[in-house]
Predict the structure.
Amino acid sequence: MKEKKKGYISYAESRQIIKYNKQQIRYYEKLKKRKHIPESEYVVQMRDENNIVEFDDLHTFFFTDTGTVKAVDGVSFDIPAHSTVGIVGESGCGKSVTSLSLLRLVQAPQGQIVSGAIRYRMKDGSCYDISKVPQEMMERISGKEISMIFQEPMTSLNPVFTIGYQLDEVSLLHIEGATKETARQKSIEMLELVGIANAEGVYKSYPHELSGGMRQRVMIAMALCCQPNLIIADEPTTALDVTIQAQILDLLRGLKEKFDSSIMLITHDLGVIAEMADFVVVMYAGKVIEAGNVFEIFDHPSHPYTIGLLRSKPVINKKVDELYCIKGRVPSAVDLPDYCYFKDRCDRCTAACGGKYPEFVWLSPTHKVACHLYDGVKEEN
Amino acid sequence: MEEKTENTQESTSPVPPKKQNAFVTNAKKLFQAGIPRASLQDYDKTPPTEEELKENILIVNHLKKYFPVETNLIGQPIRYLKAVDDVSLRIPYGKTLGIVGESGCGKTTLGRTLLGLYGKTAGEVYFDGADITDFGERQMNTIRKDMQVIFQDPYSSLSPRFTVGGIISEGVAVHKIVPRDEIKDYVMALMERCGLQPQYYERYPYEFSGGQRQRICIARALAVKPKFVVCDEPVSALDVSIQAQILNLLRELQTEMQLAYMFISHDLSVVQHVSDSVGVMYLGSMVECGPTDRIFENPMHPYTKSLLSAVPVPDPRRKKDRIILQGSIPSPANPPSGCRFHTRCPACMDICKEQAPVYREYEAGHSCACHLYPQE
């Protein structure tokens, strides 16, 4: 008999996976494509009236040919109104999928929101569960209520249309009674607002004629066109130089004040988080491992992964001989272990870490952490 | 070349220029518009002293790399993109020089020109005690094994059709570093040193993650026992935790193999961590260069100051009084007059718009090009 190779799947296994995926995808697609979805399914009450978004035990899975990838596996956190929530984590930790779930943009049919709720409070005060609302309603929410700034401005702008055409599209779709002329005025006004000096000229130009920073400004203008309640910024400055990054962050901060909206900022740069965010959520392998306000996270990082992340980044004017490094790498998203996912990379492992996945421990009313190191704290409280 | 053609024209044509037809005059005009090659070398050639050659592995004087952007009728360039304009630097044995700057400032072109991947337009290069300024392709091949490169993107710099062993051993076989039958053992030992398991020898690059691919790139560069490695943004495509692993590996290998690095990056905190000295580039030329401590504690050039203040610091309580530069980097094909930074400079004076500042040394090893400081 041949020894079973690790990391490879046999033909029989592969067929089994495909059969299971088909069944699952058919079930979830059917749920979504019903003609009449009763209101009672998606009209909900917020847990706290101050929150604009509440993620409640969200699960987003991808049914791939190599197995089910649990991209988001039980994520819960809140976004309070008028504040910035930063989400940090390495690539593949599910931070982008969380934000895409909020806009229902997860790549279907493989990607499905399997369970959990995303409660969202509209501008007019009514609350909906985004994961269950019908598609027509979603079209009214995305762009108008929640809008997104994507990571790469080059790939997210359409190269064959002018900037003006793409900006006008937003107003024509979402603002009632908008004509071509008013849409044009609105677009130029928005371009001026994001600090583009030659707004008329940029309006007529194509994306390839602009620099990276300018394109990102156009993306921001597009996102803010309808004065959304919530702006999702997915790595808005990763592709940019530091000087341009400072400009864009400054702009985002100013516009947030002006429109009184909230920002969900996704980044892997802890420096950007420290500067922008009020609350920080640290994610690892599809789960939230630590969350708290910005001072708690940076002053008393509690999870070994958060501590490692903070120590492994060189900081200007803080000399160290050798950088701390987290050994190993993020575990494969298919067949994750049932113990703590960070156990194999952690250098503060205890005997309890071999047991089941740790539950959240509240260190303060806003600061929670999922690690066995703090099991004792729970009993004291 | 220009002078030569002019001379031949004068001597061979008995007809006075007045009577030439329009085509010839036009062609001549276009011909003369070409920048004569001699003007690119309008400086005094000062060869470095014996001592300097002994101390430094690499000495570069007035290096220029121009790309032609417009040519005349007969294919002579009439306008250049000055990607690297008059850069001088030196790297001592076993030390690291960091190069920082925004994208499009010519830092990658500088690295590639030094390696001979681009032919240089003008300038002198001394490597490992020898003058390699006028080396041809064949002569370059003899010193190639001493200078290696690690590229930015580990996803596109590894051939997908070679196994890991093939990628690393190719250079070893070409340069005959070890006898043919020992290559496999040698490569496996090196792979282990770079944090790759030796059983990966027969695997293909697509089976690896970004961090591991970068380790393969490092192993490939170090396989031929180089003395000098150009690291062109080796960690900017990697995650924070993997970044730290690669930076630590590079540093360990440096002390072990006495390597000199030229570390190109746009991340100032990484550059401060790895470098002994730092050069700041803006639009093709060096604006400031000096020991790392001096640059970070006491920057002279306004551009360096604003770069430093733009870096986000992971401390929520830090005061956010930063210098935010307006606008973006101008096109290098059409650079501003005078000091190239004057369009964005917070301390711009009238003289900056007209006259380019002199790049000179102010303190031991700390040079700067700015009108804020005495020019003579």
In short: Chain B touches chain A at residues 102-103, 209, 211, 239-245, 247-248, 251, 266-270, 272-273, 296-297, 306-318, 320, 322, 324-326, 328-329 (CB under 8 Å). Confidence is low (pLDDT under 50) at residues 1-15, 34-38 of chain B. Residues 44 and 62 of chain B are 10 Å apart (CA to CA).
